[in-house]
From TrEMBL:
Originating organism: Rubripirellula lacrimiformis
One Pfam family of this chain: Phage_int_SAM_4
Annotated protein name in UniProt: Integrase SAM-like N-terminal domain-containing protein
One MF annotation (Gene Ontology) recorded for this entry: DNA binding
GO biological process: one example: DNA integration
Length: 244
């Protein structure tokens, strides 16, 4: 079998003991996801992408998804002996997301907030450009710090959902998919989904991707009694006394 052959050849590779321990485990996960009866197991871009997304949907952090990608890459090299799938893009994106998650985790451990929450007006230059842009606009409009933290949190989750920090190029279809995932996989309440939608529409209003004349409406799963009907034109500047 492909899994056993991979284990045998991996054991003879000059790798760190930790790599030899976790690579077979991640490849086992990849193999279980495949529906092929034939051998050896195939490695294709669409299969790798589906595998990594399945891990993401289960809440596996980016640094472990990077491990999983490397495991499949080594299987391709040792067993299939080809380079049909270029893993450079996968590893680069997952590395960026892993660093983003690490910075957020360290910031929470050190001060209880997201990066950039330490001093008024201070925006971390190491944050993704989209996050910096949202923070800057919210501070110009004098939104409460709690609102900024909540909105940035939703934007970061949206970035993880896309596996892409360059969120400016996306729009209503991707927002709709994200909201559906929150409802179906995350089982969030209608109020939570409303907040996520408001945060993303605020961001895309800042970037100009959703203009004020667009309805910007999104369908919601049937289990919600109240479906968010927030439009980008509804997101107008508010003072401190108005909460969200």
């Amino acid at each position: 079998m492909s899994v056993e052959l991979f284990r045998q050849r991996l054991s003879r590779a000059q790798l760190h003991p930790n790599d030899l321990a976790w690579m077979p485990q991640w490849f086992d996960e990849y193999a279980r996801l495949q529906q092929d009866d034939g051998e050896p197991l195939k490695v294709e871009t669409s299969r790798v992408l589906a595998f990594l997304r399945s891990l993401r949907d289960r809440g596996v952090p980016a640094w472990q998804r990077l491990q999983a990608a490397r495991a499949v890459e080594w299987y391709q090299a040792l067993v299939l002996r080809n380079d049909e799938v270029d893993f450079v893009h996968f590893k680069q994106k997952l590395g960026e997301l892993a660093e983003l998650e690490k910075r957020a985790r360290v910031a929470v451990e050190n001060g209880g907030g997201m990066p950039g929450e330490g001093l008024p007006g201070l925006i971390d230059p190491n944050e993704p450009a989209a996050v910096r842009k949202m923070r800057a606009r919210m501070r110009v409009l004098h939104h409460p710090k709690s609102t900024e933290q909540a909105y940035v949190g939703w934007l970061v989750r949206f970035i993880r959902h896309l596996d892409d920090e360059n969120v400016d190029k996306y729009g209503e279809p991707e927002i709709g998919q994200f909201l559906t995932e929150l409802a179906v996989v995350g089982e969030v309440t209608a109020g939570t989904q409303n907040q996520a939608l408001a945060a993303l529409l605020f961001f895309f209003g800042v970037t100009g991707r959703l203009d004020g004349t667009s309805n910007g409406r999104f369908s919601c799963p049937h289990q919600f009694e109240v479906c968010p009907q927030i439009r980008s034109s509804d997101l107008k500047p508010r003072g401190r006394g108005n909460g969200l």
